[in-house]
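pasting input
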Amino acid sequence: MKKVYMCFATDILHSGHINIISKAAQLGPVTAGILPNEIIATYDRIPVTTLEERIRVFENIKGIDRVIVQPTLSYRSVLEELRPEYVVHGDDWRDGVLQCVRQEVISILAQQGGELVEFPYTHDEVLMQIEAQMRRQSAIPDSRRPRLRHLLRNAERPLRFLEAHSGLSGMICEKTTIVKDGSPRSFDGMWLSSLCDSTMKAKPDIELVDLTSRLRTADEIMEVTTKPIIFDGDTGGLIEHFVHNIQTIERSGISAVIIEDKVGLKKNSLFGTDAAQCQDSIEHFCEKIRQGKQALKTRDFMLIARIESLILKAGMEDALRRAAAYTAAGADGIMIHSKEKEPDEILTFCDRFHADCPDVPIVVVPTTFNTVREEAFWQHGVRIVIYANHLIRSAYPAMQAAAERILQEGRCKEASDEFCMPIKEIISLF
Ligand code: SPV
Ligand code: MG
């Protein structure tokens, strides 16, 4: 009997799958490989059902002989062990991020004397509606909120969060995927930066843009995306206000808030000691953390404490003392910030804190110490890397250049040709 292998990422089964499975079964006994949710999340919507649930469903489908877990997007380990005569797939993976996976399958099968059999993929109107409904479902607050904790539990590399300041930039965070070393790579979620949200409104980053407006931006992003959001909560304000505001943020479907240990007029940390800024006392900030945690209604939401000691030149020992105190007060993670170009102080902090509290996620924002790669951060215990301002910092000069070019030429042809996407593309983006 010739062996047949198929791999599945879907959580919605429809007649198209059943047709393809019955065609595959005519070739020989079918082994179905099921991809884990976190692997699917690297290039597509996170499944709404668990891996175990999907295994049980596939075990009971007529035509499937055996079900295994395919641990990676690459078929290599499974194909080398199973050595099937046929791999069966829909023809929808010829384009898009899976084309590299397909190419690898073809080359492994060529070495093993196997064959790839592709059947036409069914584009079904009803199915597309179900898929759209699933996307909406995974965007509702209760489904979205726990996603950060879930990703952290399963991560084998730092989660990457990219700044979003609008629905459009949120969509870029959600959808941008590249193929690197044969695997798709995308962002894990959005950072709702106070700097970028303020800049978007042409305001300074001094807690001037109020929570109502910040949540309006969050809502715009949430309307068109499904990935988890980390909210930059600035200082959190007065404790009396924070205990209310944290509930509003939690209710919206955001997964975490980061508050920084400063008091008084907050200015952006990257001014360093050039701007007079006052660090909160350990006791007072711990009280803010304790009361904030007590106010929460779910166990899904995370309150992350941000330490400004290195920014304010209060020293490493102060930073570590604060990290221990904030963790003891209930913080679900520690963000350590620095404005140094060299990563040394950040990495020293991470090593020392991680040795003491290996289970507390460390968050970094490598805007200035930007030479360190994500894999290296992981080795130092970093679990979330935030690219905090790169979409707005790249958009602003591009807009400025287009505006100047129109003025220079007295017409828009040159700006259009040099800087702009085709009209045809923008009118059909959504
Ligand atoms: C932000 O993005 O608003 C931050 C990070 O708080 S930083 O600008 O580096 O302070
Ligand atoms: Mg900020």
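fyi The mean pLDDT is 94.
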